[in-house]
Design goal:
Layout lengths: L8 H23 L3 H20 L3 H6 L9
Length: about 70
């Protein structure tokens, strides 16, 4: 399995910001005892932050999308 970078810098920044926002929403939902919303937002936020930190998106890899600008 190839885990090379396949995301552009702009894509990584957007995913990082949205991931942090989703994690904050998850904390707020957990405090309001909306556990299902908290779990879904937390999982989605963690996934986006993981993509942002590694620069690799499994969905992009499956679809053959490479926005990083580097040659394969």
């Amino acid at each position: 399995m190839d885990l090379s970078q396949n995301m552009s810098t702009a894509d990584r920044v957007v995913r990082g910001v949205v991931g942090i926002w989703l994690l904050a929403m998850a904390v707020g939902a957990a405090l309001d005892r909306r556990n299902v919303v908290a779990a879904i937002a937390g999982i989605a936020g963690a996934g986006l932050l993981s993509n942002s930190l590694t620069g690799h998106c499994g969905g992009n890899a499956l679809l053959g999308i490479d926005t990083s600008g580097s040659e394969p």
